[in-house]
Each structure stands twice: as C-alpha cells, then as structure tokens.
Design goal:
This protein has helices spanning 12-21, 40-49, 65-75, 107-114, 166-173, 193-203; strands at residues 3-6, 25-29, 55-60, 79-82, 98-104, 123-128, 155-157, 177-180, 185-187, 190-191. The chain is 28% helix and 21% strand. The longest helix has 11 residues, at 65-75. The chain has a single domain, classed as TIM Barrel, CATH 3.20.20.
Length: 206
Amino acid sequence: MIRIKICGITSRKDAFAAVDAGADALGFMMHRASPRAVTPRKAREIAASLPRGTVAVGVFVSGSARSVAATADYCGFHLVQWHGGYPRPLLGVVRAPVMAAFRIGSRKDAIRAAKPSGPLPALFLLDSREKGRPGGTGRVFDWSLLAGLGFPVPFFLAGGLDRFNVATAVRKVRPFGVDVSTGVERSPGAKDPGLMRAFVREARAV
C-alpha cells in the first residue's frame, strides 16, 4: 500500500486531522524561512501526542550534523528529511533514519539521484527543482525524467501533488510513497481536512 506523508504540519488540530484522513507520516518544517515553520518546542509537543505508528518527520534544510541530531532527538522525530545536499555528514550522527531529498529538473538530475555515491540513506524524496528554493515548490516536475531508472532505496514522490493528479502519479511513477503539503491547504500552514481525505482516497484508489 502506498505510504502517504502530509508535510508542513503546524498545529495539533491539523496533525490529528491528517492522521484521521489516513496519513502514515507527518512532516514538521525546521527551516525558519518556510511559511510552515514550527519551533522545536511546538514540533515536540505535537509529535509526542501522535498515535502510535504515525511517523513524525523533521524537515531540515541547513545546520550541522550535530545540531540536526540534537533537534531530532529533542523533538522525538522518527525520520529526518534533509534538503541540504547529499546527507553523508548526517549518516552515523543522526540516530533517526534519514530521507535525502533530490530536486529533479532534468534527466541528469534524475540519473544523479538514481546513482548516488557513498553510503545510502534509508529513503529518497524526489521533488521539483526551482531556482533559489530547496523544496516545497508546489509544482509538478516531468515524471518521464524518471523512466527506466532504478533507485537504490525506496522513494517518496513530491512536487505539486494534489487530489487531481496523485492517482496518475502513483500509476506512472510507482513510488514507495507520496508527499503533499500545498495540495491539501487552505493557506500556507493551514490544512484542509476535506482535501486531505480526498488526497488519501485518490492515492490509495490505484
């Protein structure tokens, strides 16, 4: 069954609405510049209240391996999502498994993600490439760029997914999981329960 991660959670209310909708994992933005950023204290409070089995994911863009590890431990994150380049410095320092984000804007980007060098993280996340933005673009990339490529670890597909296109994405790309944020929001950081339910329903209808 496809895994579903709803990212950019900013409140306990939205967290539980996402869980009720059927999300397997919730993402908490640790990047201060994001309109969906939460403090470590807030993330810790929400993560501690989640039902058993729900994966709390800390999303990081920068910071030293030690600072990321300390924040992840403090917040109780089960998974660390890293957008700051290949996560080699984090591996072996961060106790939680690491999901490495790759921005895809060309076939070269896709091949680079499929054939990384060095130790492997637990998961990949494939997102849209947009100049000046580490992720969370809300835009779909050309999924055909992934055609014929095998990835060494399971991956989540991100980038502009919503209730209208997620079923097509699952059929065409066959990812391990899908990641959504803007596609289930009323406004940045405010999730819509109806949109979350529709997204999960469409993703799992394939």
